[in-house]
């Protein structure tokens, strides 16, 4: 067998291998679907550094991610921008305890998925993860005007300025102000005036020396009358003694 006949099958096999390898390298491999990550979504959108830091420090970011990736329950997140946080009064965040920071972040999360159109028919007040609004501590009310969505908390009035993310399970909306709940930032009601203690009843019994003195002080005439009577008795005793002495003397002289 000639060398050309021996090399021909080998060259054909090599050509087929090179062609297959080239086609395979040009076709992109499908990326596996990654788990939903709220901080990654905010980081990609930009201008949410303060919110990301608070979600991480309060562990709420992990709770949101776990809930989204392990259940079918939807969530809606209202995301204040860095500019919204910078507009807060100085020291606002530092004045909160760790638990109050958790409640502040939970107040920005509604435990249901709300599309932008559902805000027009939603029932107020919205329930947030911070708790029920029945007690008046965490009310969150939504109103719409055309395509504009407004949010009021009793402390601030905010506007939804952009839809950042939506996948029919998680909706993230940009808001122009930090949502401050009444529970944390409302003026506390004035304390009720203390109820006066009931007066103690006066004890009955023998009057004290002080009460006798007070009685005499209130009735000076009675004291004068007693003194006058004692003087009259003393005078009468002296007169009687004198009369008796005179009578005895007369009798003895006879």
From TrEMBL:
Q: Which UniProt keywords apply?
A: Cell membrane, Glycoprotein, GPI-anchor, Lipoprotein, Membrane, Proteoglycan, Signal
Under SUPFAM superfamilies, the record lists:
FAS1 domain (SSF82153)
- Single GO biological process annotation from the record: plant-type secondary cell wall biogenesis
Can you say where in the cell this protein is located? Cell membrane
From the UniProt entry, list the residue stretches annotated as the region Disordered: 190-221
| Bilayer topology term | Lipid-anchor; GPI-anchor
GO cellular component annotations of the record: plasma membrane; side of membrane
Keyword Membrane in annotation: yes
InterPro entries to which the protein is assigned, alphabetical: FAS1_dom_sf (IPR036378), FAS1_domain (IPR000782), FLA_A (IPR045003)
> What PANTHER family does this protein map onto?
FASCICLIN-LIKE ARABINOGALACTAN PROTEIN (PTHR32077), FASCICLIN-LIKE ARABINOGALACTAN PROTEIN 11 (PTHR32077:SF65)
**Its function?**
May be a cell surface adhesion protein.
Where in the sequence is the signal peptide annotated? 1-25
Q: What is this protein called?
A: FAS1 domain-containing protein
Primary location group: membrane
Q: Which organism is it from?
A: Nepenthes gracilis (Slender pitcher plant)
Query: Record's family?
Result: Belongs to the fasciclin-like AGP family.
Keyword Lipoprotein part of the UniProt annotation = yes
Q: Which residues form the FAS1 domain?
A: 35-179
